[in-house]
Amino acid sequence: MARLPGIRRIFRHERDGDVGAEMQFHLDARTDDLTRAGLAPVEARRVAIAEFGDRERYQAETVRIDRGYARTVRVREFLWSVWYDLGYTLRGLRRSPGFAAATLLTLALGIGANTAVWTITDALMRRPLPIEHPDELHAARRADRSDGGDYYHSYPRFRRMQATMPEPSSLAAMSAMNRMYVTAGDRLEPAVGQLVSGNWFGVLRVRAAAGRTLAPSDETTGDAAPAAVLSDGFWTRQFARDPGVVGTTVRVNGTPVRVIGVAGSGFQGLTIGQSVDLWLPLTSQWAVRYRGNMSASDADLEKPWPAQDGIHWLTLIARVAPSAAVRVSGALDRQLREELEQEMTRMDAADRAHAAREHLVLDAIPRGFSGIRDRYADPLRVLTASVGLVLVIACANLAGLLLARGAARSHELAVRVSLGARRTRIVRHVLTDSVTVALLGGALSLLVAHWGTAVLLRSASSDPRPIPLAVGTGLRVIGFTLALSVLTGLVVGGLPALRVSRAGLYDAFRGTGRVVGSRGGHRVPLGRALVAAQIALSLVLVATAGVFVRTLRNLLAIDPGYEHTQVITARLDVRAAGYDYTELPALYDRLLSRVATVPGVRSASLSLHGFAASIGTSAFAVPGRTLPPGENNAQQNYVTPEYFATVGMTLVKGRRFAPTDRVGGPRVAIVSESMARHFFGTTDVIGQRFGTGTPPELEIVGLVRDARVNALREAPPRLVYFPLAQGPQEYINSLEVRVTGRPEPVLASLRTALRNVSPTLPVREIVTLSDLLERGVSRERLVARLAGSFGVLALLLAGIGLYGVMGHSVWRRTNEMGVRLALGASPGGVRMLVLRESLAMSLAGLVLGFVLLLPIQGLTGRLVYGMSPRDPASVVIAAGILLLVTTVAAFVPAWRASRIDPVDAIRAA
Amino acid sequence: MSTLDLLQGTLDLLILKTLSWGPMHGYSVARAIRERSDGAFLIEEGALYPALHRLERQGWIESEWGLSENNRKAKFYQLTARGRAQLRAELATWKRYTDAVAGVLAPA
Predict the structure, then answer these.
(1) What are the DSSP E strand ranges found in A584-732?
(2) In a mutagenesis test of the A interface, which of B45, B64, B65 is the best target, namely the one with the most A β-carbons within 10 Å?
């Protein structure tokens, strides 16, 4: 039995003394017998002691046995009492299945939601990369003093940096991930590819699950087909884990490559939340037509990249012991400075000033890179807070229910106390009760969490596929759930336990009597305080949900500057299809003319960059104006003449592109309003000239309205459009179609049409622009939807809590109500009495809620759009909704109070 | 007559048997064993107490403080129902054991 340590010591001391007394009695009795038989008392004593043997030893042995015994008894009693309490709890649950179901469901949802959010936060924010010693991994960032800089370096620089490393083989390089098309047999599958240096796997210490990983010897520019390593995921998805695929040849973007192995399972690359399907050597860039993110200057992208110092496309990864990181970083920085000194001689003043500030730092990347980590850090923080609040509300709710049940059971508990049960025993009984229920709920919550995690990853993804996040191993998740369940159980049971332990016998017995007056003992205020707390937290959740819902509505109400309801876009990868650029104009003509014949198509166009895609920027110069570096650029796109009409962009001035804008003719451009204002300070720009060189080679022939082509949230970019006919080497990525009726029926026939033109043309997807736009607000939609459901849940719980407390109060005060009615109070007056009390609780909760809102709103700052995170309207609306819900919840008890029959009520007294 | 070492476990049997005559304190148990065996066993009386407490822990005997014949405080032990069953079982085992030994040693 759980006793205080001091008490246990006293107890043991007495037992130890017992043994001594027992033995003393033995010796005395034997001495007496011997004396009686005629021995002298001293001699008798000596004999008795001799016969007894080593008393010290026997006493110690006996005491040891007793202590063991006492321990066994304690453990047995403890287990028995737990067993008893468990039985009590389970019988109780079985007796009231409705209550049991509601309780377990509340707990399962509350705990499960927390587990799901924790699982994702854990995987995204805290989990180190699944490789050996991830703390030794560093990435070389090129930074200046003012901005974060980037991780991109050229291949020649990679080699030079490698030479400065104390251990050259510990520096590896990798490209950005890019979509590639893998043909195995006759299947064409999109895949995510990454180019890496031959020592990359060695630096990461990732071993092969089958075959081998890349080795430095695979970095050759010879004629042999490049080597490729598959990821475990891709091997499973595409090849059903067939080991026979190692050694075979597949095509990547049309080029044959040899599969040499499969990387160890669990390794998806260094970017959390994005999984790589296959890795190829850097030297295969040209062969497999790789073209991922990079920045270039003085370079020809249409020639092999590894040979060019002007193309920065590689992230340098070093394995350096943390203690040596500063030294290595210094060596690499010196190398970069040296290179920049040389380059600076060829730069103009502005660029030189910029270059002078540049330096190189090694960033520790034990958790890898992650775009979604940044993207979802804020939403996850808000989600964590929200699900935490939901659980707290659920706890308050259940504690209230337990209090009410405790009141009903106080008589029984009082009897047990008066029969000698210790107070600690009763407290443990109450806690065992709540912890058991919480653990049962926790077990159910694992299902909720499993499902919730999958739903979150799917709905947070901007792709049709869920975010490939390696979420927690079972044990971690179960451990968290277990801990949270026990904590929940202790919190839920804590207040009722405290109440029981404090309540005197008198109070407990009185609990079965009737209480006159609205403050019957101290029982009611605690229950009411819990309800007020629930209302306060609900206000926080509902108001926050309001802010997010309004943010989403603000975003959806934005005019993107183009028409999206009747436009379909097909995202193509012409480059990956393996066309030579001389074949492009003919292909583009075939595409446009074939698509035009599809029923329902009004017009069609092609563009280099589609919507919501990454668009390249270029620096431009306007004669007579100087703009600082970083301010002198604009996004550029190549489009066919019908583009503006097809996507519904309004031409404000000038003309569209015409078939006469061809190679050899004057170079023309159409610019957006932002571009015109930024570069020329006016929108009166038709006929003006600008360009990348001197004299400016481009003439502006048209001005279009600003459009948010990148993302709804982003301000319209500065845009320059060129006619595709004047960029005949450009591999387009997008085809747009305006339809006359509903777009859905056209989707399928468009796919067929594209396949007719070229069966090998990779079509990434065909979607309506509306869907693309929706995807752009997927994060906001997710946050709004989740916050909304948490708000509704909170409202529901608060309503139930208030209903429970008021119902209980009316039941306890039946007698008082009867007296009031008998003395002439009107039923309406009694109703108002109850409603007033509920209103008081609600208002107290709302005031508390306003206070709690302030810090929570700070969290949401970066997630709102078009409004203040402290949006007063959302708070007022939330408060109104809460008042409505609580009043409705209080109405049933109020009505019941007014219907009490005074005669019955008083007679029952 | 020289004394005998007590066979392992035999002390438990002797205690149980002794207590089967009724509740008694540790000293009476020792005295009863000494008298009935005519002092044949080499047994330190102190060894009785670990054995008594062990048997109590097994649940075969239970104890209670009471007053001795001389009105002194003494701890009295008595057999439980389980102890009685245990005694029967051990007696049967003992009988089989001695029979077997006797059978082997008997002159052919």
Answers:
(1) 601-607, 617-619, 633-639, 651-654, 668-672, 689-690, 698-704, 719-723
(2) B45
Q: Which residues of A touch B54 (CB under 8 A)?
A: 65
Instruction: Assign A512 a pLDDT band (cuts: 50, 70, 90).
Output: very low
Mean pLDDT of all residues in A800-823: 83
pLDDT bucket at A366, cuts 50 / 70 / 90: confident
The whole-angstrom separation of Cα A49 and Cα A54 is: 8
Are B74 and A25 inside 8 Å of each other by CB? yes
pLDDT in tens, A96-128: 777 788 788 888 888 998 998 898 888 888 888
- Residues whose CB is less than 8 angstroms from the CB of residue A788 and which lie 6 or more positions away in sequence, other chains included: A545, A548, A549
Q: How far is CA A213 from CA A200, A235, A453, A810, in A?
A: 9, 14, 32, 74
Is it the case that residue A737 has pLDDT exceeding 90? Answer: yes
Residues 6+ apart with CB under 8 A from A195: A174, A175, A279, A280, A281, A282, A284, A285, A290, A292
Strand A359-364 relative to strand B4-5, pairing? unpaired
What confidence tens digit (pLDDT) does each residue in A626-657 have? 777 778 889 999 999 999 999 999 999 999 99
Q: Is the pLDDT of residue A879 over 90?
A: yes
3-state secondary structure chain B: CCCEECCCCHHHHHHHHHHCCCCEEHHHHHHHHHHHHCCCEECCHHHHHHHHHHHHHHCCEEEEEEECCCCCEEEEEEECHHHHHHHHHHHHHHHHHHHHHHHHHCCC
Chain-wide mean pLDDT for chain A?
84
Among the listed residues A843, A887, A107, A798, the one whose alpha carbon sits nearest the alpha carbon of residue A397: A798
Q: Give the nearest chain B residue to A34 (CA atoms).
A: B31
Distance CA A430, CA A436 (A): 10
Token output for A774: 């929706």
Per-residue pLDDT, averaged over A702-709, amounts to 92
Whether B49 and A58 lie within 8 Å, measured CB to CB: yes
Q: How far apart are CA B75 and CA B56, in angstroms?
A: 12
pLDDT of B69 above 80: yes
* Residue in chain A nearest B51 by alpha carbon: A62
Flag whether residue B100 sits within 8 Å of chain A, measured between CB atoms: no
Q: Pick B27's closest partner by Cβ from A21, A30, A72.
A: A30
A58 interaction partners in chain B (CB closer than 8 Å):
44, 46-47, 49-50
Are residues B44 and A18, on separate chains, in Cβ contact within 8 Å?
no
Q: At what angle do helices A872-898 and A778-812 cross, to 10 degrees?
A: 30
Residues of B in contact with A28 (CB under 8 A): 72
Interatomic CA distance for residues B25 and A238, integer angstroms: 83
Which residues from chain B sit within 8 angstroms of residue A57, using beta carbons? 46
Flag whether pLDDT at A524 surpasses 70: no
Under an 8 A CB cutoff, do A23 and B31 touch? no
Residue linked to tokens 């930074």 = A143
Q: What beta strand segments (E) does A163-313 contain?
A: 171-175, 178-184, 187-196, 208-211, 227-230, 249-252, 255-263, 278-281, 295-296, 311-312
Q: Give the Cα separation of A73 and A65 in Å (integer).
A: 12
Residue-wise pLDDT for A547-563, tens only, equals 999 988 888 888 888 88
- Given a cut of 50, whether residue B1 has pLDDT beyond it is no
What residues does B33 pair with on adjacent strands?
none
List the Cα angle A695/A696/A698 in 5-degree steps: 145
Say if residue A503 is exposed, middle or buried (CB neighbours under 10 Å; 0-12, 13-18, 19+): buried
Count the Cβ atoms, other than its own, within 10 Å of residue A715.
Answer: 10
**Interval A341-356 mean pLDDT:** 76
Q: What is the ipTM of this complex?
A: 0.90
**The residue type at A49:** I
d(CA A610, CA A475): 44
